[in-house]
Specification:
With 315 residues, the chain is of the alpha/beta class. It is built from twelve helices and eleven strands. The strands form two sheets. A six-stranded mixed sheet has the order 3-2-1-4-5-11, with helices on both faces. The chain has a five-stranded mixed sheet with strand order 8-7-6-9-10, sandwiched between helices. The protein is globular and about 65 Å long. The two termini are 12 Å apart.
């Protein structure tokens, strides 16, 4: 990225919307707020567009927004609708009068973590997905199928398992310190279903219980530790599926996402991956870095998964 370029990058996810204004490697300003359901839903491009602009309005005053040279947006739901993703790219390009690139949050994370090189990235946040781009730029993925059918081992999954353990203890099952942790949410465990149903985003609400499960596991709670151990086994299998066995060679993966920000969890996950012959490598960046790369460089091996505004902008 040239130092003269002023790039607007965004990570418009289901839990959070983050925007940054960058000049080369310098961060000029940042803002964040709530997320949205995904660009694939009804009126998704407009919802993403309005949320992104609203978040831009929260940037510190005095930033050179008129000097923006490109826009890169990592957006939830992109993989479910290429047409709507293309529409969003066009809307952003017209609004800022610059080239715009829209890509999935998972693709952006892989791009940022490996700086455009082929390889595997495991993202463990509210959801969970492993992405691998091979040398030919073909995507191989495992999980990331959402809270109904997948995202096993994710923050939502861990939190949900923890809440289920609280209810099982309430029914006479194994006692757990998670019951006391749930007391910060409701007066009695039998109120948990109603509490969850009343949440605007129940998956995010369950994910917010995950840090309490991690804390309980680290403190020695057997039930919580069992949940975390199972999450690590599931995620190890997810990486193995995305890696395709790597034809007998050593598989390598970069870890990203809020859940692996826990040193306790990351250590257990690394141990589980190592037992499966998978080496963990340090990520070189995150999803916002990947969005910036997509905005400022063409001809990436991931190009077929990047939705650009379609205008014949000069390189």
């Amino acid at each position: 990225m040239e130092a003269t370029e002023v790039v607007l990058v965004a990570d418009v996810g289901k839990s959070r919307c983050r925007v940054e204004l960058r000049s080369g490697t310098e961060l000029l300003g940042a803002a964040d707020q709530h997320g949205f359901p995904g660009v694939h839903v009804d009126n998704g491009p407009s919802l993403a567009f309005e949320l992104l602009l609203e978040t831009v309005s929260l940037l510190p005053p005095g930033l050179p927004l008129s000097a923006i040279t490109s826009v890169g947006a990592a957006v939830a739901g992109v993989e479910a609708s290429a047409e709507k993703s293309q529409e969003l790219a066009t809307m952003l390009s017209r609004r800022f009068s610059v080239p715009a690139a829209v890509l999935s949050d998972a693709t952006a994370a892989q791009l940022g973590a490996l700086q455009g090189a082929p390889g595997t990235t495991l993202i463990v946040g509210t959801g969970a997905v492993a992405f691998r781009f091979d040398e030919a730029g073909v995507l191989h993925r495992a999980d990331g199928w959402g809270p109904y059918l997948g995202d096993r081992g994710s923050g939502r999954w861990i939190g949900q398992q923890g809440l289920q353990a609280v209810l099982e203890a309430h029914d006479g099952g194994p006692a757990t310190s998670l019951s006391a942790a749930a007391g910060a949410l409701v007066e009695s465990p039998d109120m948990l279903p109603g509490w969850l149903a009343a949440n605007e985003n129940p998956y995010r609400a369950m994910a917010r219980f995950a840090p309490l499960v991690l804390h309980a596991a680290e403190a020695g709670d057997a039930v919580a530790h069992g949940i975390i151990g199972e999450a690590c086994r599931i995620l190890t299998r997810t990486v193995g599926l995305a890696s395709g066995g790597d034809n007998g060679s050593t598989a390598r993966v970069a870890l990203l996402g809020g859940v692996v920000g826990s040193d306790f969890f990351a250590a257990l996950l690394r141990k589980s991956l190592a037992s499966a012959g998978i080496e963990v490598v340090a990520p070189l960046g995150d999803g916002l870095d990947g969005a910036a790369l997509a905005a400022t460089r063409r001809g990436l091996i991931q190009e077929r998964y990047i939705h650009r505004d379609g205008t014949n902008w000069p390189d």
